[in-house]
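#lab-general

N.A. 3:47 PM
ok so I finally got the sequence cleaned up, no stray characters, all 648 residues accounted for. can someone with queue access submit it? mine expired

B.Y. 3:52 PM
send it over

N.A. 3:53 PM
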Amino acid sequence: MDKVSTDCPYPGCFFCVMKEGNPSKRRASVLKFFRELPSQDDDGQVLPISGLWNTAMAHPNDPEFIELGIFECMAALIWKGLKNRRWLSHDQNIYIPYYAAHIIGSYTMNMEEFAERAVHAGVIPPLVELLRGRLTWVEQRVAVRALGHLATYPSTFSAIANHGEVLELSIELAMSSLEIVYSHFYQYVDRRLSYHCDLLTRGMGGVEMESRKAEEWASQLQCWSLQLINCFAFKTEFLSVISKPEFLIKLPGMWGGLVNENSPAGIGLLRTICHNKMGRGPIASCPSIIESLCNIARSSDDWQYMAIDCLLWLIQDTSTCHKVVDKAVPALLDLSEVSTLGDHKNLGNTIINVLQECIQSQAASRNSISPRTKEQIEELLNSKQRLKWEKGMPKEDLHIKQAAALVVKLEGNSLFSSGNITGAASKYSEALSLCPLRSKKERVVLFSNRAQCHLLLQQPLAAITDATRALSLHNPVNRHAKSLWRRAQAYDMIGLAKESLLDAILFINECSQSNDPDLSLRQNKVPDYAERLVKKQMRSAWLFREAAIKHGGIQCEGDGGGIYGRESDDSEWETASESDIGNDGRDAMGDDDDDSEWNNEEEGKDSYDRASIKGVRTAQRNSRAKKVASYSLTLPDGANLNGKFSSC
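B.Y. 4:20 PM
back already:
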C-alpha cells in the first residue's frame, strides 16, 4: 500500500490511510488493506484491528467498511489464528481472533443487510470453530454473540441452522459456561492468561476488577448462548432438541445475576418454548420448573411477567392444565389484582378470565382439578362479583364498612403489640373481609401486616402470599417497602436466595425515596439488617457458587462463609419484627400511606414488645440493583451491587 503520510515510519499504515482527504483514494487504500492484511505477518497488526473494533462499536450501522470487505478480512484472520499457532503466538496476534469476531458481531447486530453480507463473506464456519472452544472461552463469548445476531434475522437464520452443531454447542455452552470461566480463569489468579486480563480490564484494573469483569463476561457468555438457542426455539422442528428435561430444569437458575439486566436469560427461553404447544408438554412434566415459574411470578424480578405468561399458557392448554393447575393457581391468585405490569395492561383481569375459563372447561374435561384449587378460584370469582356489588352501594354504607374494618384492624394492632400474633393475624383477616375491595391502600396495609404475623409464626409461604398480594395492590406495583422486606425474609426462610436478594435490594431502593421517617435511610446508609441480608443472599446467589462448590472453591456450603471467606457474625437471624423499619425496634403495623383515610395518631405509636415474641423467634446461625451503589454498603469480595448492566 502506498505511503500516505511522510510523518509515519510505517508504509501502508491503516491510521494514516484513514486520514486521507481524498475519499476515492481512501476507499481504494482501505480495500487494499483488507485484502492484504490476512496474508501479512508484520508486527503490530493488532493495532489496526483494535482500531476497527472501536469503529465497529461506535458506528455499527456505517456501511463503508462492509462494502470494502471487512467481513472477508475478519473471517480470514480468524481462520489464520485457528490454523497457524505460530503466527497466533507471535507479537500480540493472540488478540486478533477475539477482535475479529467482535467486529463481525458489532456490524451485524442492527442491520439485516449487513448480516447477509457477512454470511456471503463466509463468517459462519470460523465463528462455529470458535464456538467449539478451539481457542478459549473469551473467543467463545464473542463468537456466540455474533452467531446470535446472525440467527436473529429471517434471511440469515437458515445459514446458521444448516450448521447442525450450532444448537447443540449452544446448549452445552449455556449449561457449562459459568463452570468454564470459573475453572479456567476465576479460580486461580496466578494462572490467568495475561491477554484475558488485558481484554477484561483494558489494562486499567487489578485482580479484583478482573474477577468482577470475569463474572460479568461469564453471565454474558451464558445469556448470549441462551439468546442463540432462543432463535431456534421459535422453530417447531428444533424444540425436540431444546426441550430435553436435563436442559429445561436448569433454565430457571440461569438468570444472569445482577450484572446483566438486558437479557431475560433462562426465563426468556422458557417463555419462547412455552409459547409453542409442542414445548408446553415437556415443561409441564417438570414440577420443579412449574415451582420456579411460580416463584419468579411472585418476585420483583424484571422478567416477572414472562413467568406469568408461561403459567397462563400452560393453564389455557387443555393438554397441560391438569399437570400444573394445582401449583400455578395459588401464585396466580396472589397476582389477580395487578393492574399493569410492564407492557401488560389489565393483567389481573387477564388472570381472572383465564382461571374462570379453567373452571368452565373443567366440567367437560376428563382431568379434573382438585377441590381445594376449585374452591380458591371460586372465591376469586366471588370477590369479582362482590366488587360489582360494592360499586352500587351508597357512599355512606361504604364508609360504614371502612370504619368497621378500621376498628378491627386496630384491635389486631393491639393484639400484635401485646404479643398475641395469632390473634392479630385473625383480626387482620377479619378486617380484610370487611374492607371494601376498592379501598386498595387500606388492603395493602392489612395484607402486609398479616404477612408480618405469618413471619413471626414461622409460616413463610403464607407470608409470601400476603406480601405478594400487598405488592400487587400497591401503586406502583412491587414498590411497597415494608412488604418487600417481609417477603425478602420469607424467601430467605425457604432458601430462595435470588428472590430474597431482589426484594431486599428493591426495599433499600424504596427506602431511599421514602418520606416516612421510619423507612428513610439515615445519613444515606443502608440499614444494618438489610446489609446483612443482602450480603448473605449475594453469597448464596453468586453466579459461580455451583462451580466453586464443584471445584473446591468453597470449603463449606453454609451460607455464612465459603465463597468470599467466612465472616465472624455472632448475631442471630432477625425476624421481620426485630429487623425493624426504624432503629428503635418498632415496626408500625399501621403502615405509611400519608393520604390513607385510616391514618390516625395511634397507628404511628403501634410497637411490639420484644419480650412478648421470644417464643416465636428462631435463632438461625448461618455459616439483578438500582440506586444501592450510592449507599455505604460494604460487600464481600467478588460481589457487585452497582446496578445491573450489560457490556459488549
